[in-house]
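Priority: medium. Attachment 1 of 2:
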């Protein structure tokens, strides 16, 4: 005969916590508890260190007071006693204090120049030729008069010609100033790149002076008949005198 097997009828789990959550809940509870305990230990340690620091600060202040009384009220040499810091979160700085405490970013530090240094720097600054001197010809006029007609000049040749004509400059690059003068199309012609030629300006003859309307026209001298007769009589007398002198000889 076959053996009869009894069916195991377990109690059905009712609604509530799902299966397998007890161990997870226990592990999470133990982990948070351990973290809280460790945090409490750290807080207690920090508080004990703060108390020690405050006690040492008080001792230092008492020693400074004793030294000051021993010196007759004078301040004791060495580091000044600092007040015990307040416990808790530091107070927020105001906007004005924050602006004052802002530091300059990385880079070259800002130079502080006084009025005397600025005046000295402006006095010793190198002067450059910005135009013709008062009472003298301009560079283009001087160069146009010194250049030969029909000859092509480079910038170096034109610079030598201008210096020989008496042009003086203290510019760092005098060719730049010279190139500006040669850009005048009424006086110079650009033959090629960096080469120039003088334009000959034709001078018109000076016009004759027109007669002035107020001046009277020249008139011929009037002849007087009595004067001519007198001159003729004088001539006849001279010839008669010469004839008598020849007869006497």
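Attachment 2 of 2:
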């Amino acid at each position: 005969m076959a053996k009869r097997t009894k069916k195991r009828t377990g109690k059905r789990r009712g609604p509530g916590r799902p299966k397998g959550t007890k161990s997870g809940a226990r592990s999470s509870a133990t982990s948070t508890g351990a973290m809280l305990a460790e945090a409490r230990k750290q807080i207690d340690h920090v508080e004990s260190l703060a108390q020690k620091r405050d006690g040492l600060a008080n001792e230092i202040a008492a020693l400074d007071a004793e030294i000051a009384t021993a010196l007759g009220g004078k301040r004791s040499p060495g580091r000044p006693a600092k007040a015990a810091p307040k416990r808790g979160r530091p107070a927020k700085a105001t906007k004005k204090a924050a602006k004052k405490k802002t530091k300059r970013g990385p880079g070259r530090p800002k130079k502080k120049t006084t009025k005397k240094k600025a005046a000295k720097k402006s006095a010793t600054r190198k002067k450059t030729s910005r135009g013709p001197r008062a009472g003298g010809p301009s560079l283009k006029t001087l160069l146009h008069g010194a250049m030969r007609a029909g000859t092509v000049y480079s910038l170096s040749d034109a610079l030598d010609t201008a210096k020989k004509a008496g042009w003086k400059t203290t510019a760092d690059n005098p060719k730049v100033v010279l190139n500006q003068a040669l850009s005048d199309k009424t006086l110079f012609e650009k033959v090629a790149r960096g080469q120039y030629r003088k334009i000959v300006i034709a001078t018109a003859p000076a016009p004759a002076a027109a007669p002035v309307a107020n001046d009277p026209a020249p008139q011929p001298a009037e002849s007087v008949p009595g004067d001519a007769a007198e001159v003729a009589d004088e001539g006849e007398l001279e010839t008669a005198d010469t004839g008598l002198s020849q007869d006497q000889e």
